[in-house]
């Protein structure tokens, strides 16, 4: 009997073809998120789901799909999936790490440089026709070269961001649940700091921790107050790591200098007041959004899914 695979949103034709070699494929939607009702209806009777980070895959979805054999997430972060519930039911959950590390690190740097040097803010001014010409104190930003970068969460992406910092001759501080060995710290040229110390010392604080109940609002009012008034917050990880309302208030009151954000607490909605602030750069969740990376993610998500269906261990299993 042929297997039935549900892909919640269309990826790339070559990947759909690859999946079709194995079974029947149903695509949920071409260019939009599925509604909850569509998702619940779409998964009915399926053996495998290839889902997006915007699909909430919880007990209700698993109930709607009792024969489910695998949940393959098209993302490295898998906070959209109830992994505990899936594990209880013996359903493997997979993700797509590694292939998006460099693209996400690049985007982190794009935001950091942009907000520090006021590129998007300047672009808005230039386009508006209100630019009056060069001035000695016009639109001054912050030196990136030689400054201090604080990386919160030191997994693959945090390390890729740190590697790029060497080219800017930066001092790199990191905070992570597990500390590296002194040899590794030396090799990577990074210094461990408890979070509160890192926040107080860094000129740029960049978030790369996974989102879990423990990291919810990791950066809230108190943490923002610890940061220098001249410092910038960069978030390309997950929106709810930051208390967005506290961030808006900190920016409005000048407690920090600016922020470069790619992710938000309630995407695609923004906290009230965020879009009105000049000193923020707001990207629409583009961390892994390059042709090359998204193709690699799609192939890896397909490979994860098919290997489970073939009875093999998938390349990237997230269940404990
Ligand atoms: C991920 O994979 O978690 C990224 O956020 C996708 O862009």
From TrEMBL:
One of its GO terms (cellular component) is cytosol. Signal peptide: none annotated. InterPro entries: D-isomer_2-hydroxyacid_DH, D-isomer_2_OHA_DH_cat_dom, D-isomer_DH_CS, D-isomer_DH_CS1, D-isomer_DH_NAD-bd, NAD(P)-bd_dom_sf. GO terms for molecular function: glyoxylate reductase (NADPH) activity; hydroxypyruvate reductase [NAD(P)H] activity; NAD binding. It comes from the Bacteria. Residues 110-287 form the D-isomer specific 2-hydroxyacid dehydrogenase NAD-binding domain. PROSITE patterns: D_2_HYDROXYACID_DH_1, D_2_HYDROXYACID_DH_2, D_2_HYDROXYACID_DH_3. Transmembrane segments: none annotated. Residues 5-319 form the D-isomer specific 2-hydroxyacid dehydrogenase catalytic domain. Pfam families: 2-Hacid_dh, 2-Hacid_dh_C. This is D-glycerate dehydrogenase. The lineage of its organism: Bacteria, Bacillati, Bacillota, Bacilli, Bacillales.
């Amino acid at each position: 009997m042929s297997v039935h695979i549900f892909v919640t949103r269309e990826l790339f034709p070559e990947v759909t073809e690859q999946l079709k070699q194995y079974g029947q494929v149903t695509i949920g939607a071409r260019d939009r998120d599925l509604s909850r009702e569509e998702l619940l209806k779409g998964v009915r009777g399926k053996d495998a789901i290839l889902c997006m980070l915007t699909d909430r895959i919880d007990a209700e979805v698993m109930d709607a799909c009792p024969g489910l054999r695998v949940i393959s997430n098209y993302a490295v972060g898998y906070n959209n999936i109830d992994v505990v519930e899936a594990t209880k039911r013996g359903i493997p959950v997979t993700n797509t790490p590694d292939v998006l590390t460099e693209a996400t690190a690049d985007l982190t740097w794009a935001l950091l440089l942009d907000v520090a040097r006021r590129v998007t803010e300047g672009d808005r001014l230039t386009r508006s026709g209100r630019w009056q010409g060069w001035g000695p104190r016009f639109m001054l930003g912050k030196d990136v070269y030689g400054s201090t970068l604080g990386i919160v969460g030191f997994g693959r992406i945090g390390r890729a961001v740190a590697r790029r910092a060497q080219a800017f001759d930066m001092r790199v501080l990191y905070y992570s649940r597990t500390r590296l060995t002194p040899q590794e710290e030396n090799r990577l040229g990074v210094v461990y700091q408890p979070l509160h110390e890192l926040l107080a010392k860094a000129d740029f604080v960049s978030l790369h921790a996974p989102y879990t109940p423990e990291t919810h609002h990791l950066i809230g009012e108190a943490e923002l107050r610890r940061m220098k008034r001249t410092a910038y917050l960069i978030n390309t990880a997950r929106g709810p790591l930051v208390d967005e309302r506290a961030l808006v208030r900190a920016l409005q009151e000048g407690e920090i200098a600016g922020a470069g954000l790619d992710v938000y607490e309630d995407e695609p909605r923004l906290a009230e007041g965020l879009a009105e602030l000049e000193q923020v750069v707001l990207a629409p969740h583009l961390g892994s959004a390059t042709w090359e990376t998204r193709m690699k993610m799609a192939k890896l998500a397909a490979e994860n899914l098919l290997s489970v269906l073939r009875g093999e261990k998938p390349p990237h299993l997230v269940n404990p």
